Amino acid sequence: MGSTMAILIRILLWLVWVAGVSWFWHAGMLGTGTSLALGALSLVVFAWPASSARRRSTELRYVDVGKEPAGLH
Fold first, then answer.
1. Keywords, A to Z (predicted)?
2. Is the pLDDT of residue 61 over 90?
3. Which of 24, 36, 37, 70 could form a disulfide with 29 if both were Cys (CB 3.0 to 4.6 A apart)?
4. Which pTM does this prediction carry?
């Protein structure tokens, strides 16, 4: 559930970003090149991977203690 919520928040932030840039472009405050560059930058930020600390916490880890079960001796 946590990762789904994070993805939804990223999508909503991306939509707000694109809507804001398009509004400024429509109002004549930004040129076409600047608007396209900001749109491309928004895709880079949206596709940026999650932090490595978060990724590490969800990985499965194998721990080898170097001992055999007591019943096998």
1. Membrane, Transmembrane, Transmembrane helix
2. no
3. 24
4. 0.58
As given in the structure block, the two tokens for residue 65 are: 């203690």
Question: What digits encode the pLDDT tens for the residues 22-45?
Answer: 999 999 999 999 999 998 888 887
Q: Which helix (H) or strand (E) holds 66?
A: none
Query: What's the mean per-residue pLDDT of the chain?
Result: 78
Residue whose entry in the numeric block shows the structure tokens 């007591």: 70
One DSSP character per residue, 3-65 reads HHHHHHHHHHHHHHHHHHHHHHHHTTSS-HHHHHHHHHHHHHHHHPPPPHHHHHHHS------
Separation between Cα atoms, residue 28 and residue 34, nearest integer Å: 11
